[in-house]
Amino acid sequence: MIKMTVSKNGFTLVEVLITVGITLALIPIVITLLINCQVLSSIAKHKVEAAYAAQQTIETQRQEPISYFAPRLATQNAVSPAIVGLVPLDTKGNYSNVNCNTNPNIICGTETITIKPETFSGLQSNYTAVYQPAIGSAITYNIIAHINVQISWFEIGLNRTISESYAADFIVNDPMLN
Predict the structure, then answer these.
(1) How far apart are CA 122 and CA 110, in angstroms?
(2) What is the pLDDT of residues 66-89, one digit of tens each?
(3) Is residue 29 part of a domain?
(4) Exposed, middle or buried, 109 (CB in 10 Å: 0-12/13-18/19+)?
(5) Which end of the chain has fewer CB atoms at under 10 Å, N or C?
(6) Are 160 and 154 in contact (CB under 8 A)?
(7) What domain range is 79 assigned to?
(8) Which residues, other chains included, contact 49 with Cβ-Cβ below 8 Å and sequence gap of 6+?
(9) Rounded CA separation 129/135 (Å)
(10) Is residue 5, in this structure, part of any structural domain at all?
(11) What pTM was estimated for this model as a whole?
(12) What's the CA gap between 68 and 45, in Å, rounded?
């Protein structure tokens, strides 16, 4: 005669309840991590977009003629009035989109451009030049300009404004360096 053993396969009610409890405890943690990753990814994306927009602005400023910089750099240690404009930060590199306030998929930012003379610890007189405009008297100005571009935007995921600054020093109207 063959003896048959009965094996018990499966989970007990206690094991199932413990597993469900652990799973329910971990679900909020996983959801929070996913939301934080999405917010941090969005911030990183917008910082890269802001850096790209700032670099475009700096390169545009480098191409300006001497007549653009001379009045801004004529006063030693003075900061010229900031140039403020709207900068839409989008994923396609289109920074002249006029629909940025009406399109919820485009993050709108404010760009503030500040141009000032570079002082170099009192050696300012070694870095000056004279510009003679077509009308009016000659202007002595600082050859080396410091440009600061600050881009601020409202980050929806954080519900606050983030600001990034980018700066560059360059020699005004130098065809080799600009």
Answers:
(1) 33
(2) 778 877 777 666 666 777 777 766
(3) yes
(4) buried
(5) N
(6) yes
(7) 13-171
(8) 89, 90, 91, 107
(9) 18
(10) no
(11) 0.67
(12) 33
